[in-house]
Amino acid sequence: MYYTENTTLYCNGNFLKAIEAKTDLYGQTLHYGYGVFEGIRAYNTENGTKIFKAREHYERLKRSCELVNIPFPYDLKELEKVTYELLLRNKLSDAYIRPLIYCDPNMSLSRPTKVNIMICAWEWGGYLGDKMLRVCISSFQRPNPKSVKVEAKVNGHYVNSILATTEAKDKGYDEGLLLDMHGNVAEAPGANFFCEKDGKLFTPPLGNILAGITRATVLELCDELNIPYEVKHLKPSELRDMDTAFFCGTAAEVVGIASIDDQKFKKSWLDTVSYKIQTAYKDRVHERNLTASAS
Ligand code: PMP
Predict the structure, then answer these.
(1) Residue 291 has pLDDT above 70, yes or no
(2) Is the CB of 39 under 6 A from ligand 1?
(3) Most-buried pick from 111, 143, 159, 197 (CB within 10 A)?
């Protein structure tokens, strides 16, 4: 359940009951998938409710709009403020927050002149659960960066994600891992990918993937914990030699991968630096003492 009769959402400067909110059925976002969105989490921390990297998420929302020519007539600070207000009005602390910028009625393929913003929030556990995942290499590639702006979080791009996740689940796996147009490992349908070998982490470079805020946080944690890493292209065949791997994203957080195409990783998760990163990430978002978990 994403909302009940008591849920409030934010829309174009007002707080409304979710059950009373309306949208126009002639909009470009609904018809063409031409809109942008974000996925943000708030945590019940020792210092109260805190939205993790709110500024970075709203900056990416703005950047996504700029990349695809959607106007962004909003103040970033104000958006952060109304998001805290939204959480308060819904009595939410641990929550997933979904801002969406959607376009006005327009059936032509021209750039919009007027946009709308809605922000809603609900309680959501780890998107991919907390068990080690059985992953398969997807038959779907990530979108070609010469066809779309892959670094923008555009609604329509998620048809590719839905196809990949559905295929993986239909085949009995938990999630798919998509390659890019050159056959390099790219990312999951809604999360970035890391793998580990001999205590060092590897992750694909930007260019064919979403620039994940969790991915950036993982790299920050590596620096803080002196965990070596390399950003480089990986072929799926190289994954066989890895000790372990994980997906990371705002909704999924850091979740370990047990196997890829039924090939199990050799190392026990608890013996990996990836596990250290998972723990440090939990500490970071909850604003707990980082060094305590890293030792
Ligand atoms: N890749 C894709 C395709 C995603 O949808 C997401 C989720 N936004 C991510 C990666 C992870 O991004 P973030 O860590 O910013 O949530």
Answers:
(1) no
(2) yes
(3) 143
Query: Whole-angstrom Cα distance, residue 239 to residue 263?
Result: 9
Q: Whose CA is nearest to atom 10 of ligand 1?
A: 191
Helix axis angle for 76-89 and 54-67, nearest 10°, is 120
Residue 284's closest CA among 244, 86, 276, 195?
276
CA of 6 to the centre of ligand 1 (A): 29
293, 215, 206, 203: which is closest to 253 by C-alpha? Answer: 215
Indicate whether this model's pTM tops 0.85: yes
User: What is the 76 CA–ligand 1 centroid distance (Å)?
Assistant: 20
Q: 158-170: string of b/e by CB count within 10 Å (b at 16+)?
A: eebbebbbebbee
The pLDDT, as a whole number, for residue 292 is: 46
Q: Whose CA is nearest to atom 2 of ligand 1?
A: 190
Q: In 12-68, at which residue ranges do the beta strands (DSSP E only) sit?
A: 14-17, 36-37, 40-45, 48-51
Which is the catalytic residue, given 146, 153, 232, 276? Answer: 153
* Contact present, 137 and 260 (Cβ < 8 Å): yes
Instruction: Tell which atom from ligand 1 comes closest to the C-alpha of 38.
Output: 8
200 is catalytic: no
